[in-house]
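Annex B. Sample input.
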Amino acid sequence: LDAAGKEMATISQGSPVAREILDSPMAPLARQIAGAGAEGLMEVIRQFLASQ
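Annex B, continued. Sample output.
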């Protein structure tokens, strides 16, 4: 949830990281998150950055 209580994204540890994220400039961060078992977190970060 964001500061206003609006849902930004759903985190699912079972979802894969999109190939275009792994090929993007954010690839090192995406690989670290995926390696930690939190693939869905990368999607939350991507959606947050896109909304800024």
